[in-house]
Amino acid sequence: MSEFTKTLCPYCGVGCGLEVSPPAQHGKATNRDSQGTPIWRVRGDKAHPSSQGMVCVKGATIAESLDKNRLQYPMIRESLDQDFRRASWEEAFDLIAKRIQTVRFTQGPEAICMYGSGQFQTEDYYIAQKLMKGCLGSNNFDANSRLCMSSAVAGYIQSFGADGPPCCYEDLELTDCAFLIGTNTAECHPIIFNRLEKYRKKNRKVKLIVVDPRRTPTAENADLHLAIRPGTDIDLLNGIAHLLMRWNQIDVGFIDDCTSNFPAYAEVIRHYSPDVVAHRCGISVADLETAARYWGQSQRVLSMWSMGINQSSEGTAKVRTIINLHLMTGQIGKPGSGPFSLTGQPNAMGGREAGGLSHLLPGYRLVKNPQHRAEVENFWGLKPGQISSEQGMTAWDMITGLENGTVGLLWIAATNPAVSMPDLERTKKALLRSPFTIYQDAYYPTETSAYAHVLLPAAQWSEKTGVMTNSERRVTLCPAFRFPWWEAKADWEIFAEVGRRLGFTKEFAFANSAEVYAEFVQLTRDRPCDMTGMSHELLQTQGPTQWPFPSNNAESPVDTQHSKRLYTNLRFHTPDGRARFGAYHSRGLAEPPDPNYPFVLTTGRLYGHWHTQTRTGRIEKIRAMHPEPFIEIHPRDAASLGITDNQWLEVRSRRGKAKFPAKITKAIAPGTVFVPMHWGALWADEAEANALTHPESCPDSLQPELKACAVDLTPI
Ligand code: SF4
């Protein structure tokens, strides 16, 4: 038997397969970290179809983070100005159950909130939904995915009638033209970029268009880099559509047979002539025409995007405007083409399947749909009307709910909002007002633990068994390969125990996570994400598997062609089976620059770090790669401010300020500056990118515009 356990990298939504083995093996050298501590061996899993043995620096060094900075046992304090004291699980569970009951019967279930995470396994997500939305009757479960990909979810639902990325990674190696917009794939989804670049090296005719205000490592590899002004994505996309219409490079048959609302869209794009678009976007007409020509002349266009599109006050409109280009050219449902959102977190996709946002229910159902509520109530054995018909609070609603006293209990799990939320000073002040905050995490301290009344130690992915779904809808079983750290428990076990103490013993009578998963998949029956054929056992024997995977798949030879791509039959999940064009004019940035705040600040991620550094901040190799935060500024702007490289700048927005050393580079356009988002208060003084950002959100997805705000710069 192999000494290696197959699992999944728990960082990003690429979902690379890993193989891990214990530190000491007979006859083999022991792996050690830089302090000489023995660590688990990690290597890429060559048999994993998504990653084919590749890993980036985060996956390769994950073992170094396993035992660092861990929360060991429950801790409690009466108020935030006291020190924590050690508590037993018994005491912590008792206290939590009592507080939930008090809030439930004094303020109502709608005062109970849970803020979860794309780090959850699907079983964690599912039990949290059953507890919150089912048993307690509060739809106030939202996840940090709200800040990450909720615009993609809303865009898919509005255009196709259901969520779910239609493409697969194999499309990377079948496309004629990759159109990357609002994604620094080379740094943020490196293995996807590796696959694409390997293919392009062998197929020189394959074009790569990158749309990004920065000249990122992704853009450096492009055939065409369109460095548009921040907030002009819709102008650009409508401008490309205008040219395709003008050149008659549209698929009239597909538009007629498979779509609706094209006339309204055609009326909008009529206004986006090349000179208007080039002027608004700050690019040349020639470059705009080249982009349109690459689209029009390609048989198979694959567009990909992530935060640069989703984190926007018009995020859903941007997503739909990308999808429009695929609909007008018939580029969907066939190999090498389609609109493909790249998910940020390792299991944000599983969260979507399990209903892990405040407007969702398990199985890609919607809270506002009466039939969907009735189906879930019936399945859970609840009385009709138990699930609220109101959308629950989003992540930002919970912050404003703390401000206005409508939140009576906040339960935060596996995420670090004291770094990652917008308008951070306001967020922190709101967290200080919380009557009762439970913080459940594998790590301690974090920036958020300072705001908790109760700390609960959660088991890491390495210490519990569950599944995660990556961006190409591939589900991988992640078996526990270590004992839980000290007293840590799996997130789902913690939620289930609280549920039992609230009297829902039958609802949470699960012996293990395989039983949880078995129950969950039944709720996906006949839904777009049908995975009723999957089980822990099947995933163990068959390996990582894509959905849809209905139960009849498990009985017959697996038809992977059926699951690879969605919409191959060109029928969509809308009532009339047609995909809908969305007709949008560009609204631009929610906070454009002005004389008082003349620069646009854009935020992003670096190759080595993961989000708020809870893990990667403890890995020496990664710290050496990215030792400190910085602000990228164009030489022309640096000259006008009279600053030199590494000179410190104070950056002010309407909400807060931060300080960074300047990195003078032509990678950023004049008038725009860039700051990485990874540094919180634990790591650096006054270098929090989100001290500057604002919470203005997309009206459809309710995802905040974390990507851009107006700032002023002062040399210090
Ligand atoms: Fe992990 Fe993402 Fe890197 Fe793959 S690309 S090893 S999933 S961080």
TrEMBL record:
Cofactor: Mo-bis(molybdopterin guanine dinucleotide); [4Fe-4S] cluster
GO molecular function terms noted in the UniProt entry: 4 iron, 4 sulfur cluster binding; metal ion binding; molybdopterin cofactor binding; oxidoreductase activity
GO biological process, alphabetically ordered: nitrate assimilation
SUPFAM superfamilies, per database record: ADC-like, Formate dehydrogenase/DMSO reductase, domains 1-3
Matching PROSITE patterns: 4FE4S_MOW_BIS_MGD, MOLYBDOPTERIN_PROK_1, MOLYBDOPTERIN_PROK_3
UniProt entry keywords in alphabetical sequence: 4Fe-4S, Iron, Iron-sulfur, Metal-binding, Molybdenum, Nitrate assimilation, Oxidoreductase
4Fe-4S Mo/W bis-MGD-type domain segment(s): 2-70
InterPro entries per the UniProt record, alphabetical: Asp_de-COase-like_dom_sf, CT_Nitrate-R-NapA-like, MoPterin_dinucl-bd_dom, Mopterin_OxRdtase, Mopterin_OxRdtase_4Fe-4S_dom, Mopterin_OxRdtase_prok_CS, MopterinOxRdtase_cofactor_BS, Prok_molybdopt-oxidoreductase
Gene Ontology CC terms: membrane
Entry's family note: Belongs to the prokaryotic molybdopterin-containing oxidoreductase family. NasA/NapA/NarB subfamily.
Protein name: Molybdopterin oxidoreductase NarB
Organism: Tolypothrix tenuis PCC 7101
